[in-house]
Structures are given as structure tokens and as C-alpha cells.
Write a structure and sequence with these properties.
This protein has 359 residues and is of the alpha+beta class. The chain is built from nine helices and 13 strands.
Length: 359
């Protein structure tokens, strides 16, 4: 169970649960953009898919790419300019589009059949919450005054889309046989036809929860509401309760969450943190030379349009790097030479055969 400062805001935690590897990633950071403005608080959760190694590294690269994109955009376009909620919505939309292109290149260059990650991002600008997502990692907004929780983001799993179309009930989503199959995610060829960026207004003491489906997948909305609505518990205690409730319901997947509370104090803390930064911390760019260990993944996949989180994409032993290895380039040259020889010999074969027939 997580340990730490009970008053930490935001509170972040990740655990492997019953899995061998943790394919989840989470991050929280500040985006300073104008001297007289509060910095933007950004929180991200990504849940990698695609096997014991691919998912972990795709989610890691996705989080790094989003951080890099947002920081570079602020420095090159918005530095010194007061952002509006609409600016921030466009920024998150472009960040996800850019990150999706990165993941597609990773999959293509490494010859992976399928690999990907979910992602959910929250950016807090004053009292405005701007959120964006792909996949089934959700964002919840608990409204303290109304004592009500709202799922802000869409569920891009197959049953989630069916429920959105009113073809199945919300109750059926949690136990649907295709609950782990995603229609939209980082690494998918197409993005959702409906906008995947959302806006909410926060009031004092409201809570924002981002998590992987290992936390929320089997829980009813009422159960999440009950835990978040306990005014006597700290953020860490609420996080503990969410994780334990999910495990009691039979959850075995990785569990990652970020729980943040909006208040005048949290805004002041962000301002203080920003003032301590003499310069913006340099963030590592996505590791375009990432090399993973070779491994053989069993050949089992589906050719349907969706991607299953529970199956590993088939692949042979390869150098999994974003830049093709010398061995890969050598194989390609040999293949081209063989093809050229065949194309040269084919006409000779047919001409010789034609000469024999004429004789």
C-alpha cells in the first residue's frame, strides 16, 4: 500500500497488483507560461498495452512525448501569453495527435504487429479543468458541494462505445467479454470521430481522479462516489480505499491513480513551487534510440479493427529501436537484391521458353 505525506496534493500511486510487469505510467508537473499567472497543473496517466515489454515502453514514451510537446509549445508559442481554456483544449488535442503519430512510427519501424497505450491528461487553468483521453483510462470529477461524481472522459473500449450508443447498459460494460478490447488508443490508425477533449469548472474542495482501468474497471460509479465523498479521509486514504475496493471485486491488473484536490491552498502551493524554479526544468525528450531486450512473443492476434489489451502482438526476435538496426537495414538490402535478380531473370526465362516453342 502507498505510504507518504497524508497532505500531499496531488497524491500519486502505482502498483503492479497481480501482474508481473507494470505497464502503467503517471506524471504530474507544472507549466509556467506567464509571469503574473498561476502555472498550469498537468497530470497524466497512461496504461500500456501490447505485451510484457511493448506496453511498458509505449506508455513511457507517450508520457515523455506529451510533456515535451507541452513544454515546447509553451516556450515557442505561448510563453508570456495568458492562455484561455480554448487555447489549452487545442494544446491537449495537438499533444495527443502528435503522440499518436510517435506511437505509430514506433510500431512501424520496430515491425510490431500491434502495440499501444491509453492516455488521460488533465490540465488545470485557474478553476477550469481541461481533460483529454484515448482508451479506457478515465477521469472523474467529484463535486464536493453536490456530493456527486461525474465521469468526464469517454470510454473507448468496445463495450464502452456500445453503452454510449445505448446498445448495452453501463452495468454490462464492467463484465462484458470484450471489456479489454479498445477501439481508440495511442497507436490506433484513426482517432475518435467525436471530440476527445473536455472542459469542467472546479469549485473549492472538488476532487479530480485520473486512473488506469485497474482501479475503476470493476467499480460502480456509486462506489467511487462513496470513497471520494468521505470528508474524514485524506487523499492517500481515499486512494488506498479505491485500490482495495477494486481488488476485493477481483481486479488483477496494474493499478495507477492520481488524486488531486482543488482549493485556494493548492493554487498557492503551485504558485510557490513555480517561484522556486529559477528556470524551467529541462525534460528528457522521448528516447528515440530506446533499445529493449530481444524476446519472442507468442503468435496470437486478431485482424479486427480493435486492439485487445490482454493479448500480446506477435513478433519475431528483433532489435526494438526507433531507428532501424544495421542488421535490419542489411536484411532489407539483401531482400532488394534478391528481388532485382528475380526481375532480371524472369524476362530471360520467358524469352528462352518462347524460343524453344518456336523451334
Amino acid at each position: 500500500m502507498p505510504h507518504g505525506n497524508l497532505n500531499k496534493n496531488p497524491f500519486c500511486h502505482t502498483t503492479v497488483n497481480k501482474r508481473r510487469n507494470n505497464e502503467d505510467q503517471q506524471s504530474t508537473f507544472l507549466l509556467p507560461y506567464a509571469e503574473d499567472a498561476l502555472p498550469i497543473r498537468v497530470v497524466i496517466v497512461a496504461d500500456g498495452m501490447g505485451g510484457h515489454e511493448h506496453g511498458e515502453d509505449v506508455s513511457q514514451q507517450a508520457v515523455l512525448k506529451v510533456k515535451e510537446f507541452l513544454n515546447e509549445s509553451i516556450e515557442q508559442v505561448y510563453e508570456g501569453v495568458r492562455l484561455t481554456p480554448e487555447d489549452l483544449k487545442n494544446l491537449l488535442r495537438r499533444a495527443i495527435e502528435s503522440t499518436n503519430q510517435l506511437v505509430l512510427r514506433m510500431v512501424e519501424i520496430n515491425d510490431w504487429k500491434r502495440a499501444g497505450s491509453t492516455i488521460v491528461i488533465a490540465a488545470i487553468l485557474g478553476d477550469q479543468l481541461i481533460a483529454a483521453n484515448l482508451g479506457d483510462s478515465p477521469l472523474f470529477h467529484y463535486q464536493t458541494r453536490q456530493r456527486k461524481v461525474v465521469r468526464v472522459t469517454q470510454d473507448h473500449s468496445v463495450p464502452g462505445i456500445l453503452a454510449q450508443a445505448k446498445l448495452i447498459s453501463e452495468e454490462m460494460v464492467r463484465y462484458h467479454e470484450r471489456r479489454g478490447q479498445l477501439e481508440f488508443f495511442l497507436g490506433a490508425e484513426a482517432l475518435p470521430p467525436l471530440d476527445f477533449v473536455y472542459e469542467r469548472t472546479l469549485e473549492p474542495d472538488d476532487l479530480v481522479l485520473l486512473c488506469s482501468d485497474g482501479v475503476s474497471g470493476l467499480m460502480k460509479l456509486e462506489q467511487i462516489e462513496e470513497v471520494l465523498g468521505d470528508s474524514s479521509s485524506s487523499l492517500e486514504e481515499k486512494a488506498n480505499q479505491l485500490i482495495q475496493t477494486a481488488r476485493t471485486l477481483g481486479e488483477t491488473d496494474n493499478q495507477t491513480l492520481i488524486l488531486w484536490q482543488y482549493s485556494a491552498m493548492s493554487a498557492q502551493n503551485d504558485r510557490t513551487s513555480r517561484s522556486k524554479l529559477s528556470s524551467r526544468e529541462a525534460l528528457p525528450a522521448p528516447d528515440l534510440e530506446i533499445n529493449l531486450a530481444r524476446s519472442d512473443i507468442s503468435q496470437s492476434t486478431s485482424q479486427s479493427s480493435y486492439y485487445s489489451r490482454s493479448t500480446s502482438p506477435p513478433r519475431s526476435s528483433i532489435e526494438t529501436s526507433l531507428v532501424r538496426s544495421p542488421r535490419s537495414r542489411r536484411r532489407n538490402r539483401i531482400a532488394r537484391w534478391k528481388l532485382g535478380i528475380v526481375l532480371i531473370l524472369l524476362p530471360c526465362f520467358f524469352l528462352g521458353r518462347q524460343s524453344l516453342l518456336e523451334k
